[in-house]
Structure formats: C-alpha cells, structure tokens
Amino acid sequence: xxxxxxxxxxxxxxxxxxxxxxxxxxxxxxxxxxxxxxxxxxxxxxxxxxxxxxxxxxxxxxxxxxxxxxxxxxxxxxxxxxxxxxxxxxxxxxxxxxxxxxxxxxxxxxxxxxxxxxxxxxxxxxxxxxxxxxxxxxxxxxxxxxxxxxxxxxxxxxxxxxxxxxxxxxxxxxxxxxxxxxxxxxxxxxxxxxxxxxxxxxxxxxxxxxxxxxxxxxxxxxxxxxxxxxxxxxxxxxxxxxxxxxxxxxxxxxxxxxxxxxxxxxxxxxxxxxxxxxxxxxxxxxxxxxxxxxxxxxxxxxxxxxxxxxxxxxxxxxxxxxxxxxxxxxxxxxxxxxxxxxxxxxxxxxxxxxxxxxxxxxxxx
Length: 365
Description:
Blueprint: H1 3-13, E1 26-29, E2 38-42, H2 47-55, E3 60-63, H3 80-90, E4 94-97, H4 100-104, H5 109-117, E5 120-128, E6 132-140, H6 144-153, E7 167-176, E8 191-204, H7 208-218, E9 226-230, E10 235-251, H8 252-262, E11 269-270, E12 277-287, H9 292-297, E13 302-306, E14 321-324, H10 327-331, H11 334-345, E15 350-353
Parallel strand pairs: 2-3, 2-15, 3-4, 12-13, 13-14
Antiparallel strand pairs: 1-4, 5-10, 6-8, 6-9, 7-8, 10-12, 11-14
Keywords: Metal-binding
InterPro entries: DUF34/NIF3, DUF34/NIF3_bac, DUF34/NIF3_sf, N-reg_PII/ATP_PRibTrfase_C
Family: Belongs to the GTP cyclohydrolase I type 2/NIF3 family.
C-alpha cells in the first residue's frame, strides 16, 4: 500500500489539528504516494531504530515522538537529529510521528494507561475547546432527509456516543430568481415562498471542507444558504489526560506497588503517602505537570504522569499523591496501541514493534 493509505487512516483517528502548537506530528520524511511493505513501531526515532529498520527491511518508521521538533537549517550530521534524517533519506525509509494528537483522543495514549492499571468510567481530564463548529442551513422539506444523510456521512452530527444529531425547525423561505438563475422551484422574476427546514448540526473543524462539499452536492438549490459558527464548547472526546476509577479502593502504598508492576517501572517518585484509599485516578502520558490543578479539581486521589520538577511536587499540598513514573515508562505501551489499531485496519500489512528500548534514562539499583 502507499504511505498515504496508512497515514490517512491514522489521522482519521488522531487528526493533526489535535496536536499541540509545539509539536510536529505527521509525515516527516517520505512522499505520501510511495509504496510501503513493512513498518517498524517505536516510541522514539533514533539512529538505532533506523538501523533496525534497515536490518529488518522496514520502509517506514512510525514513532510516537517526532525526530524533528524545530526547523533544520543544515544537514551536516552534527547531532543525532540530523544523522537520523540523513540516514532515513539515504536508505529510503519514511518517518512518521503521531504524538500529542494521539495523546489527545479518548482512545489514545492515556486510555492505554488506564487500561493497564484497570480504570473504568474514564473520561478526558482537560477537554479542549476550539475544535467544534456549528453548521446551519435551509433546505426544502421534501429533500431534508437526503441532505442530512449526506452531511452525516461526511462527519457532521456526532456528539459523544451519539451520531446523526441535529435540530430542525420548519419555516417559510422566500426568493426571487433573476434571468441568470436556474431555480429548482419557482419562476424567474416572481417572488416564491417555499416551505423549508432550518437544520443545525455540530461538527469537528477538520471535517469542514468535506461536510460543506457534501452539503452543496446533495442540496437541490442552485445557491445554498448556510451559516458557519465557531463555538466555544469543549469537545469532551478530545483533550489532555484522563481520569477514571478503580473497582475498589486500595491503600496508597499497595496501589503504588501495583502501579510499579503493571507499568513495568523501575522507580516511582512520589509525594507523601496520604492516609486514604486510592479510588479515583488521574493519568497523563509524558510530561503532565501542567495538569496537576485539573487532577485536583477532578478529586483524583493520585495523579500518574512524569517529568515533575522538584518544586512542583510541593503543589500537591496533600490534596492527592503525585506519582511520577518516568516519561518513557508512562508512554511505552503506546507501541502496543499503535500495533493494535494498524493491524486491525490492515491485517495483511507487515508491522513490528522495535526490539530496542529508546529510553535515554538509566537507573542504577
């Protein structure tokens, strides 16, 4: 298959506009039309990973972290980023990253952490806004269902666990066609009144072009009257971190010991053990200290993430336990997540997880 077959699918699950402003998710090296036969999955893209791809005949590397975060002005091989890009190009290996956009979806990186530690009733900890729009348009009553079906199929009207969501109200539309018009109903130069339906739907911003195209194609009128609105509603399906619950409360020390085992962690840095059972748990793969206030507001008993600085631990203020399990450790099962979603969609595509750990941090025990 072609690179774009794979990347289009991944971006249908985790759209690129879900990534943070500092990120660089997407196709970093390679042409979308190039044929690929085998993929290698890793958390990071290092020289070792490129060497492994060469040795195992993989022609694309799918990593969580992008190898390039900033623009490169020279390719002299003076650092590992330049060397990775040069080696990938020389060996015709495509590089693709799916980072904070995969972090942000409800079935993404954080959902995998929740699954590993046995959480249920999980939801996004800090939902994002600015990701939804509203479409309002007018259509003759007889064609309303046909047009609604077209925009629903294009991605409009999905709210949480519900699809085909819309609101309709019947009213009277008026218009007068001029000489150049080709009216669907009515006569030229005569005021026409038509029973119409006003339909409103919510849609994700990245689907706008597809939805408007479907509307214009399915609508019977020569000129379609419609309005687009930016809305400030938070998208509860997209955002940072997650919060969920254990089936039963457990004392904090026992919870941390189980966490260490389930997440395959060598060391957990944590705040003071509090004298209460752990029931409600917040998580964030990677660097999540910015979500501490959200975890506290969500009444979490513990917040599992990584990369907390020394003074940031004080901000817990005995309201919850911070459990810093390490950046690599918190995201390592992202590789399994990617393998599962790609294999499910493309069962005959050859794909493997790296045999090398890219964790740059070592522990002396």
